[in-house]
Amino acid sequence: MGTRTAGPSLPAELLPLADGRVRVAVVQIDRAGAINAWNEDAEELFGYAAELVIGKPLTDLAAWPHTPGTSTGIVEALQLSRWEGSYGVRGASGRVIPVYASHLRVRDTGGEPSTVCLLVREHERAVLQTPLRGQSPDATNSAEGQALDPFEVFIGSPAPDDLDGLLQRTVERARDMLDADSAFLLLATDDETELEVRASTGLPSARQRFARVPVDAGPGRYGSARMPAVHDDLTAVPGAVPLLSGTGMRSVVTVPLKVEGRLTGSLGVAAESPSRYSNEEALRLQFAADRIALAVESARLGELERLRRGSLSFLVEASDLLAGTLDRDQTLALMAQMTIPTLATWCAVYTIADQASEPYLSYVLHEDEDRIDGVKALLSKIPPPEPIPTPGARVWSAPAQAAHEAALRTSMRSLGLGEPATVSSGIGTTLATASAVGGETVVLPLVARNRVIGMLTLGKPSDEHFRQEILELAEDLSRRAALALDNARLYSERTAISQSLQRSLLPPDLPHIEGVEVEVIYRAAGEGNEVGGDFYDLFPIRDGAYGFAIGDVCGTGPNAAAVTGLARHALRLLAREGLSGPAVLERLNSAILDEGARSRFLTLLYGELWPQEDGSALLKVVCAGHPLPLRLRQDGTVEPAAEPQPLLGVMEDLELYEQTVTLDPGDVLLCVTDGVTERREGTRMLGDDGLTDVLTTCTGLTAGAVAARIMRAVERFASDAPSDDMAILAMRVAGLQKD
Q1: pLDDT tens digits, residue range 474-496?
Q2: pLDDT tens-digit profile of 612-638?
Q3: What three-state secondary structure class fits 58?
Q4: Which stretch of 170-184, 228-242, 282-296, 421-435 has the lowest confidence by average pLDDT?
Q5: E strand or H helix that includes residue 465
Q6: Domains along the sequence of the chain with CATH
Q7: Which of 658, 642, 661 is nearest to 580 (CA)?
Q8: Radius of gyration (C-alpha) of the chain in whole angstroms
Q9: Which long-range contacts (CB under 8 A, 24 or more apart) does 360-367 make?
Q10: Could you give the CA distance from residue 515 to residue 112 in angstroms, rounded to a whole number?
Q11: 631 strand-pairing partners
Q12: What pLDDT shows up at residue 131?
């Protein structure tokens, strides 16, 4: 028993200010981060009954002054053995209530850990705040005869080794040194035109991270952060210190942090009462600022170097990922996944189909998957951002405003002040969405080939801001993503055109031939973005006669498609004019040569088929440079059904001839393109012999089964995907059905 620590007796006017009744909220958090205890003072402070919050994560209520990737987050703080500091709690009214908290990690008799959180209003922090330790006599004696480092005297030893820790320690020491209600430290941008809030204490969480104010806020000496300034009463000069607007602070002293004449930042302390500070306090604060300026600048430069190295690695990885796909939906997903959580808490991608179209919400992602639907629903209810092509990020306030309004309506309904809640009671999805979307939101245009094709929208949770380095990285990413998205669009359009053209070059339906089974398998090589050169056709010529063809145009693309279309339609037209097979191909050869530079070589197997009354089928075949058709007899023997002749599109005055073949019932005629016979695995090739061997095993099979077995054999011959188009036409004479 005894006194552990004590302070001097003070006059009443110097004692810390508190409300008539100090309320200390006691909140206990279980291992999973959910609230399992909530006392009456917590209900009074924040407006939620215990049954509305028990079982919910504390993160649903806490407005944590934290950016992902830097310093300590609330999840980490709840795992520490002891933690003390400031943050905000969103009340039932939708407003963030600044609190000072003391966390202690404990365990129950069963060994189960939990965290006990004591919370008071920020201005009553003295109730919980641990007093700063004074220097012990032993330390004083050990320092005799040695010069004390002014930096360590102010900051304490050991000094934090990271920038965020150093800045937070600085504002806390500055506030305590001048017995202030709040303190803040801002760092200057590279061009010294703006100051970015990097640390604060005693201010609402909305003012605490990465908010920006101009260096020169007003006219005169006191309007610039480059000079020390003392303001006795801010109500007399509204806007003199933009950071403190609406905070209740009235007197303030600010001093610059400079290194070799360059503005590094600004340190300030403020009080709620007027006329608290004089030039004497300004000199004391300036002395402290001079002691820490070099350390702050060194830590800042180190952080910037780490950020730049990380940004370079991030952009290299992003470029590789975006270059690895030409699928539009996958590109949209990659854009969002690369930004979350590295750059932002949530992301939305709007796309614009053409100049006459409105922006369309194409993709939404949040680091918490449970929030995605809520964010998407909220964004779908507000007009999209304007597609302005100006480079750089611009602030978009509509999501935060809509979120705050929705949160207020939900809170009023849950408290019985408005229409009853229709979805759920308590905090509900709307409040969670409001917390997720309630911070700063920025829009970056996606510009490719001098056209705005969409917008990349990045957002923070309640009361958080983006730092400039993150926005610059996001701008670099948006340029790469825009080009990747436009490439995916062009590829998709080209693929759709190619597939449509490919379908137009193949017959829509095959005719039914009495007594003859017909099966066709067609496989286009590649990814579907090129028109193949292989084609087939089967069509009636006249009563009882049918023409069939299978061919391969040299090359792919539009020129090959033109020759394919010419060949298929010319074959039908010439055959129906009553010309013989050789005459049809000779005239087609002349038509191809007439194309001049656009002409292509063409291998073609053309034949005419007449089903006979005895169940057989008569064939007349011309094979112009094409793989020979194979005939499979019922006894399993395989033989060519034609002889090779010159291909088309090479020479004029071709003299072709046709050969007559009779297929008996059960015989199969197999016609393929060279993509089948030239299938390779290393130095091996399937070839005509390999195809013959496979066909020999097809005795007794239907035409469909024959074609399927051939295709399986071709696919299994090599492990790689086929590099050439393949077409298989199988015809089996089934014979006439007897009644």
Answers
A1: 999 999 999 999 998 888 888 77
A2: 988 899 999 999 999 999 999 999 999
A3: helix
A4: 421-435
A5: none
A6: 21-127 (3.30.450.20), 148-306 (3.30.450.40), 324-496 (3.30.450.40), 505-733 (3.60.40.10)
A7: 658
A8: 40
A9: 360/384, 362/332, 362/454, 363/332, 363/333, 363/335, 363/336, 364/336, 365/333, 365/336, 365/337, 365/339, 365/340, 366/340, 366/436, 367/68, 367/340, 367/341
A10: 81
A11: 639, 669
A12: 67
- Look up tokens 């998957």; give the residue: 369
- Spatial separation of the C-alpha atoms in residues 131 and 134, rounded to whole Å: 9
- How many Å apart are CA 507 and CA 284, to the nearest integer? 91
Tokens, residue 307: 């950020």
Half-sphere exposure of 524 (CA within 13 A, CB side): 21
pTM (two decimals) = 0.56
Alpha-carbon 207 to chain mean position: 29
CB 42 within 8 A of CB 52: no
The DSSP bridge partners found for residue 732 are 517, 668
468-301-472 Cα angle (round to 5):
20
Residue written as tokens 């920020």?
122
Cβ neighbours, 10 Å, residue 329: 12
Alpha helices in 32-118 (DSSP H): 40-46, 50-53, 74-77
Instruction: Judge contact between 155 and 162, C-beta under 8 A.
Output: no
One-letter-per-residue 3-state SS of 215-243: CECCCCHHHECCCCEEECCHHHCCCCCHH
CB 330 within 8 A of CB 321: no
Q: What is the per-residue pLDDT across 327-340, written as a single tens digit (0 to 9) for each?
A: 888 999 998 998 98
The pair of structure tokens assigned to 485 is 């998205």
**What interhelical angle do 398-414 and 428-437 show, nearest 10?**
150
**Residues 82 and 103 sit within 8 Å (Cβ to Cβ):** yes
